[in-house]
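Fold this: Integrase catalytic domain-containing protein
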Amino acid sequence: RVLKNCETCQKFNRKTSGGTDFVSTTRYLEKVGLDLIEFREEKAFIVVAIDYFTRRAWARVVESKHATAIVSLIKELCSQGKKPEEIIIDNGKEFCNEQLRELCSTMNIEHRKVGVESHRSNGRVERIIRTLREGMLKSKEVEFKDKVYEAIETYNLSFHVGLGCTPIEAVNDDTGKVMLENSPQGRYARRFRRWYREKFKKNQIVRVAKRENLTGCSKYSKGRFLGMGKVIELCLGDSYIVRLE
């Protein structure tokens, strides 16, 4: 981030943070990400959940952001014979309330809060939301609910590159294949390692490129630069604040 306005604001601005984390899981429902999407034109919300291990997803159409909708979906997951060990949620009121805390305490479910739209900490649920939206646009169903349920079913029955199978097949896998793909030695984890970016130190002089000129270019290509700058702050998410010299 090139320093333009308030240094404090840029330091704590989550939406401009870069980087990502690989989350290693070893079993079904060990970690479940939850989020809620608003569709204003339809005057409806969708509660979305995804299992980090199998990538299986759930979606329920509700009329309000009340905590009851979140609690209902968690109870539905528990009714299948297993329960989530940990749920990953943001700090919205629909997730941070006594009703949900009481349910988690009663069922011995850990809940971890991350920032709203925190792609780095809860990226998989953000990704399934994008996939769900795309699926709804492709759907030929007329009713809003039917579009949602068709899109989520199509996703669960589609091949997932990170797993080597569909999410539904992953739930029933007894070969150990899904375990391997979710491990630090799996193909998905190796892709994360290839996304390594150069690290900088505070007070280091760096060359600042215009981000838009790097899209689709080889890393060896020479682009236009804003100039030289000094790293004045190391931030979360593999990000830096740079003051142009």
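The chain has a mean pLDDT of 79. The two ends are 14 Å apart (CA to CA).
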